[in-house]
Amino acid sequence: MRVSKAFIPTVKETPGEAEIPSHKLMLRAGLMRKVASGFYEYLPLGQRVILKVNQIIREEMERAGAQEVLMPIMTPAELWQETGRWQKYGKELMRVKDRHERDYALGPTHEEVITDMVRRELKSYKQLPMNLFQIATKFRDEVRPRFGVMRSREFLMKDGYSFDVDDAACDKTYWIMFEAYKRIFKRCGLLCSPVEADSGLIGGSFTHEFMVMADSGEAAIAWCQACSYAANMEKAIGVPSPSAVSQAASEACVPVDTPGKYTVEEVGALLKLPPSQFIKTLIFLADGKPIAVLVRGDHEVNEVKVQNALGATELVLASPEKVMEVTGAPVGFAGPVGLKGVKILADNALKEGHDYVTGALIKDKHLIHVEIGRDCAAPWYNDFRSVKDGESCLKCGKPLKIVRGIEVGQTFKLGTKYSKSMKCVYLGEDSKDHEAVMGCYGIGVTRTVAAAIEQHNDAEGILWPISLAPYQVHLLLLNPAEPEVAKAADQFYEDLKKAGYEVLYDDRTEASAGFKFKDADLLGMPLSVRVGSRGLKEGLIEIKRRREKEPAKVPVAQVLDKVREFAAEEWKLCTH
RNA sequence: CGGGGCGUAGCGCAGCGGUAGCGCACUUGGUUUGGGACCAAGGGGCCGUGAGUUCGAAUCUCACCGCCCCGACCA
């Protein structure tokens, strides 16, 4: 494509609305424009990247035995009512009425539609397994769209659904999809890790989120580089640092004055004791009932873990008034000793330690020499805290890092949740009806594009992995006014195309060399070929990799070989 | 939905009671041409919308709309 004829509106200044690198660069490089909050239009360059991601997904899904279908974006309310999600989904489900006042939802995901489709055709176990996917526009009326295409209301998603005869067969399919996902993201040139996660609204028995590591990510992950253990903070388990005191206190537990000191830090400073010798006591309301959660002074309560352990639907921190009512003291002086009438949960890390300090349930007093089990009843121990950065990995003992990640895909084993409520059954070998066992597998296509930029950019612009780059080679004609230079560049354009490369040819006569360099850095094609009078005089052409600072200068006759060599190196980074 | 901020030229911004401005971009002519060139001449605005206050409103007041950020929420 000649730049002189292309629709690639690059922008020098950063639009004010953009916050994170991918959003800024997608606007600046002319990949997309915003139409309204949460809606974007993709310009030619953006669309080319999307098509590349789609193609990789198609190839890997087909390799894994899935078949492509296409479902409507408008879905009838009755299907959602069958599974109860018409009520449960909330405002995110975009509801619309047609001219006959009939209710529909714009599909945010398609479990109901696909289950309906399959149940109408599924008769015998001989038709299973069945694994179907589509790449289609999804609509979710997000509370707060942000970060450009990272969290938009309309977006492109690959969603796949599998149907198997039983649990074991579903597991097998799940792991085939899991492997396919790893291949897809590797081929997209992304550093991506599957993490154990919570299953949320879709429900089901187990699930992985595929996270692209990037500082701007919305989710925190505990990650071990040594053994590649990775888990969502809601699930992650680490080995805590040793307790401050390992021997039981011989003295009896006694109150001390701590006037005006509420926090672990303040009381610790006053008593000259480390935070890890404290028991931090937080009062929560679980479905309205007060509970106390104990963690070590240097740890934080993980509310999702508490909520899941209790099986509660709602967990909120108690108000100061409620704390007063439950503990008999203001916030800051709660403790397990003498605490009556509430269920007490304690984090596992507290089990090992001794001689603790904790609130005395009296204003301005704390207790020292506290022994759990001696001074108060043994609580319900479980994992109730968040992993801390630098803690040891449970699997290999190496330090865990807390990193941020962008969720680009998720795999769920659904079980029979949908096939049961929607009666998606087949006749088994035993001549009886059985519910199909389902899995579902999503990839945010447009989000993957943003994540790729998030992971591959510098101060000048994008650095596309060659597998996603809109064009593999950016050819720059530096001196368009000089006929012999222009002629040479034109020839390279033809030769490179003939050699099978996708070439963006900056043939503009009005743009200066410097302008073209800046545009090339911004657009981020992995390779650029620079044809100028300076080099041409000596018979040399510059070939520059976007990731390298300096170009290679090669004789005219060797340009294609050098391009081939560099391209091969780039492809190695995107090969599974 | 709570808190904060912003709406002025295509983009980035200034102006904050008295004739609507700057930089970039755009058009024309000329000179340039290896890291976002220079000179000259131009075009482009219901100052988000509506109501008020005022002799006079981009500027003050109120309401509404839109957008952005933080939070709650999130396959």
Return Rg in Å.
30 Å
Indicate the proportion of strand residues.
25-35%
CATH superfamily of the largest domain: Bira Bifunctional Protein, Domain 2
Q: What is the CATH top level name of the largest domain? A: Alpha Beta
Give the overall average pLDDT.
92
For this structure, the CATH topology of the largest domain is BirA Bifunctional Protein, domain 2
- Number of beta-strand segments: 33
Query: In whole angstroms, how far apart are the ends?
Result: 29 Å
How does the major sheet shape up? 9 strands, mixed
Q: How many DSSP H or I helices?
A: 15
Q: How many domains make up the coordinates?
A: 3
The residue ranges in which pLDDT falls below 50 over 5 or more consecutive positions are: none
The shape is: globular
Look at the helices and sheets and give the structural class.
Answer: alpha+beta
Query: What fraction, in percent, of the residue positions are helical?
Result: 25-40%
CATH architectural arrangement of the largest domain: 2-Layer Sandwich
